[in-house]
Each structure stands twice: as structure tokens, then as C-alpha cells.
Sequence to fold (199 residues):
Amino acid sequence: MSIDDIAFERALGPLLEVVGRSTRVGQEDLLTALEQVVGAATAVLRVRSVGVILLDEEDRMRVAAATDEVAAAVEEAQARQGVGPGIDAMRRGTTVAVPDLWAAEEYRTLQAELDATATRAVLSSPIRVEGSVVGNFNALDAEPHEWTPAQVRANAAYADVIGVALRISAHAAGAGQDVDRLTGQADLSGGPTEIGAAG
Fold:
């Protein structure tokens, strides 16, 4: 699987536009851009689903975005259990590539909550703001497979751009406002935001 560089740049456009603004980045603008980027990521990464978990103002993991019910279920299970590739990416501060979730012993408790026919391969990258990990960006596939170097780089790039957009939005929202307050204001305590249907 290869990554289409032009499609990748186009998909990141909404967040890059937000990042390009130095002032007046509103919470609504950020969330809209996040939804657009997450929605386009499935085609760029050539995966079934994509999800994003962010820490809220009390350091609880919340599902911020999911392209479909499959991604929402994986993200919610990881957040609830504190187990999974996304959690490991946050703890280690590096991308975690899992070719087959069902072949990974360390994720047995997570497997009990998920549909083995819906999610097999998982690619998780940490989202950082000013050096602190504040969430993760997860790509999910229904078939087991090795992740290509291009997919790993693109997944990490998505996470990095989301982190930059969060930082800029936090600074634009007011001096001294930290990312915990920003992600808390994003109303992550409700359910996941589902972004269209994955194709």
C-alpha cells in the first residue's frame, strides 16, 4: 500500500489552514477541521477507519473523532480499559504498528470487546502539544497486514499536525490556556463524533 502524496496534502488542508492562522482560531474552527481531516484520512492511509482520542481537562481519555462505529468501538474500548495500541503509543511517545490485533497477547482484554472481523491491523501515533502527549491518532483495518513505512510516516504526520493545531488553538484562545482546558472545552465527555462512513 502506498500513500498518494497529493491526496495526503489535500486531506491535511483544513488543519494546515487552521495552523497557518496565528490568531483567532476558534474552537469550532478547530473541531470542524479535525472532522474534515479525520474523514479524509481513511482514503489517504487506505484503511477502513480512523479515530482520535484526546485527554480531557482531568486527564481522562475521550474519543474526539471516529469515522465509523468500528473506530468508535475500538477507541471507546481502549479509553475504558486503558489497554491497546493507542494507549501504548501515548505511554511510549512513539508510533505503535500492530499487524494483527488478534495475534497480540498484550491486547487480549481489548479483543474481548471487539469484533474480530471488523478490526485487525491497528496503527497508532501519539498526538503531542508542546512536548506532552495529549492523545492518539489511530488507523484501523479489517484485514491483518504489515504497515508500510509510508503509512507509518503519514499516520505520525496526521498526529503531529493535529497537535500543532491544538497548540495554536490553545494559544489563540487566551494567554495561559493549556491544552487540557482546550480539549476539555471540546466537549469530549459526550460520545464520539462520527465522521461520515468509511469506504
Q: What stands out?
A: Helices lie at 5-20, 27-45, 69-81, 85-92, 108-111, 149-173, 179-185. Residues 175-199 have pLDDT under 50 and may be disordered. The beta strands are 49-55, 61-66, 96-98, 121-129, 132-141.
